[in-house]
């Protein structure tokens, strides 16, 4: 018969993991929650983008494109869609009129015979 050694309880680790200081501290020196960190980063990125020339460049490019499109005498999508609807209704009316003319010609031909 074998004797087993007594079972000892597992030792608890004293190792703790901490987030880097730059993740936890704000300019005010207090600990920040993760969502506050994200909000702070978003605010800083937004501020940098506002100060960058990218917005000015984007506005200038849009302006140049609009000027070019105006010279080409293009229409907006909305204007195009309206005209497409008008054309569809006009085609329907034309088909109805052609059908009516064919009927009237048929009646006239029958009357002449």
From TrEMBL:
<keyword id="KW-0963">Cytoplasm</keyword>
<comment type="function">
    <text>Required for efficient ubiquinone (coenzyme Q) biosynthesis. UbiK is probably an accessory factor of Ubi enzymes and facilitates ubiquinone biosynthesis by acting as an assembly factor, a targeting factor, or both.</text>
</comment>
<protein>
    <recommendedName>
        <fullName>Ubiquinone biosynthesis accessory factor UbiK</fullName>
    </recommendedName>
</protein>
<dbReference type="Pfam" id="PF04380">
    <property type="entry name" value="BMFP"/>
</dbReference>
<comment type="pathway">
    <text>Cofactor biosynthesis; ubiquinone biosynthesis.</text>
</comment>
<dbReference type="InterPro" id="IPR007475">
    <property type="entry name" value="UbiK"/>
</dbReference>
<dbReference type="GO" id="GO:0006744">
    <property type="term" value="P:ubiquinone biosynthetic process"/>
</dbReference>
<feature type="coiled-coil region">
    <location>
        <begin position="80"/>
        <end position="107"/>
    </location>
</feature>
<comment type="similarity">
    <text>Belongs to the UbiK family.</text>
</comment>
<keyword id="KW-0413">Isomerase</keyword>
<dbReference type="GO" id="GO:0005737">
    <property type="term" value="C:cytoplasm"/>
</dbReference>
<dbReference type="GO" id="GO:0016853">
    <property type="term" value="F:isomerase activity"/>
</dbReference>
<keyword id="KW-0831">Ubiquinone biosynthesis</keyword>
<keyword id="KW-0175">Coiled coil</keyword>
């Amino acid at each position: 018969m074998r004797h087993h050694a007594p079972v000892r309880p597992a030792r608890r680790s004293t190792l703790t993991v901490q987030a880097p200081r730059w993740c936890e501290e704000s300019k005010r020196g207090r600990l920040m929650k993760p969502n506050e960190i994200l909000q702070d980063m978003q605010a800083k990125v937004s501020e940098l983008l506002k100060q960058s020339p990218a917005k000015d460049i984007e506005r200038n490019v849009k302006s140049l494109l609009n000027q070019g499109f105006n010279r080409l005498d293009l229409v907006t999508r909305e204007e195009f869609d309206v005209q497409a609807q008008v054309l569809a209704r006009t085609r329907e009316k034309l088909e109805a009129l052609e059908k009516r003319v064919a009927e009237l010609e048929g009646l006239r031909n029958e009357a002449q015979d």
